[in-house]
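Appendix B. Extra example for self-study. Work through it before the problem class; the solution is given directly after the inputs so you can check yourself.
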Amino acid sequence: MPVLEVQNLRKSFGDVRAVESISFSVEAGEIFTIIGPNGAGKTTTLEMIEGLLPPDAGVIRFGDKSWGRDAEGIKYNIGVQPQSSAIFDLLTVEENLELFATFYPKSRSAAEVMEMINLTDQRNRHVKKLSGGQQQRLAIGLAMVNDPQIIFLDEPTTGLDPQARRNIWDIILKLKKLGKTTILTTHYMEEAEKLSDRVCIVDQGQIVALDTPSALIDSLTKEREVRLSFLDGAAAAAAADEVARAHHAVVRTELAGDSLQIWTTKPEETLYELFGFTKDRGYRVEQISIREMSLEDVFIAFTGKEWRD
Amino acid sequence: MAAKQFASMFTAQLKMMFREKQVWFWNIFFPIILMVLFMIIFGGSGSSSSFKATIAVADPVPNASSGALLSQLQQIPVFAMKEETPITLEQGREWVEKKDIDALIVLPETEGVSEVGLIVNREREGSATTQAISGILERFIQQANLAAVGATATYTISMDSITSASDDTNYQDFLMTGMIGLSLAQGGLFGMVELVDMRKRGLLKRLRMTPARMGLFGLAGMIVRLMLGVIQVVILGLVGVFAFGANLHINLASLAIAFFVGALVFNAMGYLFSSFSKTMEAYMGVANISSMLMMFLSGVFFPVETLPEWLQAVPKMLPLTYFVDGLRDGLIYANGVMSSTFWLGMSIMAIWGVVCFLLGSQIYRSKSIAATR
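Solution. Structure tokens for the complete assembly:
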């Protein structure tokens, strides 16, 4: 049974349709990532699920609980890290954790949480004196103070340097090890690819793709881009170009001096053919690469938009 | 669990309040500075009844009449003679010109029917001091005339002032209580900026994602602010009493009621401002305007009666007027709980408070900022 189920969620603000019709379900222990361009409706969707915004239509179910009647019970069971790190900045790390802990009937000790988010050394520091990454870790810590089953992280790594980002990834992976379910939104494709069990791409208030990162990438790979460059100059490249174009799997090629770009649906077969040719002629290949497909390509393919970090 | 929650919310807000330097500055130091300034500028030499004028007397041609008048003039306590003995007319004119003296009195040159001259600086011709001097001199001459014909006055005026205050109430007391009222009011008017800040930083939203009771959080904040209010009363009171010799006649019951009702009213007003202010700057603007208007119209620094007549109706509608009056009842007049004017004031304040609170809640709700679940 899914721990979270969302059906036909809709929300408009005046004339603007922020969320058109979103449905998905999340299984226990999953890291479920929602990506999409700015204004795609990610945060609106999350806020409806978190009980902050009433949806215009649609169903949100946490197991057998839904907002309204079971609000209290849902709140006990979820933890939220909102996009703006909302923390009392005149309180210390420990004081913040202790304050939030008293809101719940059962809670983790501040010491335990600080250990998990690696802020034990900063326990007595006022929040406003913490770095951005430390504040973000504390925000995540506050989301897990009630030991929730489901944790919502809204762009936890935005604006952080690579090291700080990696620290947060560690925390997310730790949570997964503990069997927690994480619902994540992010601006970083690399992050979505690395952490997620499943990725949901949202554009203009609708889901345009939803699957595991590898399945999404595979779905795209109708053709791969292969680059070759030759030590024997333009003549060798041109000769190889002819051979490549004759191959049945090649869609198109591009020749520029001594380097050749080939788009092929079966890169291994095309290359086998090409290498046979170069070996016969004694041409020396200087460099060869097959471009890896990433989630970024998936995003571009599905939304038609350039990705901007 | 509610008790535990409340306790931790209270401690947290107490810590935040006292760690914020701005709170100290605006709620404690600023009112003290303001009070000290006003005391120095307007408190003057103390009681306003001690009028004194510096004069000099010229006696160009000494004669029996002028000698008698001179010795009588020297008896008038409010006239301070710059020189005990008469001076020359030229010397006197020079002093008047330089404003070394308020007036020069020229004694008659002949006996019998003659006149007493009064020379003042033209710039000060219409001043209260000049008028007082000429009034005193006129009365003095009148008596001298009566005495000259051997008659005694049939009617005399006896003047005494009365006040509801204890006998030793003076401007220091008035100003000190006004300042206490003003700073308590400002604590409420400006204090709710915290709500705007919390909303902007997403803290209100964040709390609503937890099972925390927002009502308890608000209550805890309220009590913390009341504590700050008590500190304000004590510190400003101490400064007033020990630095400026203000007198306190405390009636604890009316003080407590006025304090409590006032705190609620001005916090409710702040709450209303916070409901429609999108930014902290907008909030501060509204709070500043309202506090400025009330400050000068509500009898904080000067009695309401000194306002022009057409303006007198305004203070009667403002809550600060009644708050300051209520505090004066509790702090210096030591009366109030039994008086109907006290309760009328408290009622008008309560109406302000309730209306502001309801309006604010309505606006919060219509923007669906308030907790819906």
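Self-check: Residues 369-373 of chain B have pLDDT under 50 and may be disordered. If your reasoning did not lead you there, revisit section 3.
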